[in-house]
Fold this protein.
Amino acid sequence: MAIEVTDAAQQSRYEARIDGDADVAGFAQYIRTAELIAFVHTEVDPRHEGKGVGSALVRESLDEAREAGLRVLATCPFYTAWIHRHPDYQHLLYQSRSTVVD
């Protein structure tokens, strides 16, 4: 089984398809700026759960963020948990540089 992940930029989401099928098996919705990509929602079709679709979406989208020099804000719980389990991606996480003091 081959999972293909593509950036559907006009829909602001990464989409996963299995074995060249036209139907979307899962997607990861994002908000993107020049410096940051925030992953806000991930959804996998129930027919494809447990097949690695979600992991493929996260890995591919984070690899592309790294190549583009983007910081990552993982507000989606699936992304947060996945990155926690894969420390080699934790350096991509956005860190606030705020110097506001109470």
About this structure: The two ends are 54 Å apart (CA to CA). Helices lie at 53-68, 77-85. The mean pLDDT is 93.
